[in-house]
Amino acid sequence: MDCIFCKIIAGDIPSAKVYEDDTMYAFRDINPEAPCHVLVIPKKHIASMDEINAENSGIVAKIYEKIPEIARLGGAENGYRVIANCGPDAGQTVFHLHFHILGGKTLPVHLCNE
Ligand code: DGP
Prior knowledge:
Number of domains: 1
Bound molecules: 2'-deoxyguanosine-5'-monophosphate
Helix content: 10-25%
């Protein structure tokens, strides 16, 4: 499958790993927008939030259970924000479900740029 994040999971594209288990892989974003900018992805290919269903939502639950630990491993000691962009209006550029964890500084309070 021609998916850049599947290639990262397979080790075909190098990445800065923060955490890994049987279900998920977490690594540093190539264009960090904060001192801690980690992406958490399921090892199973799920294209976006739109593809979450009763069959695969357990994977998402496991990711959310692990996010506090991954955030701390990534360097967010004083809070963090979790973002999942879905579709063109949200600016999703990689169509493999991913959760951005941002922290390590005081983040702007607004939820979008306008
Ligand atoms: P989104 O806009 O939510 O689809 O964000 C995709 C993110 O993926 C973006 O912040 C940059 C990151 N990214 C894209 N390609 C690579 C890559 O090859 N390596 C790493 N570490 N991050 C990547």
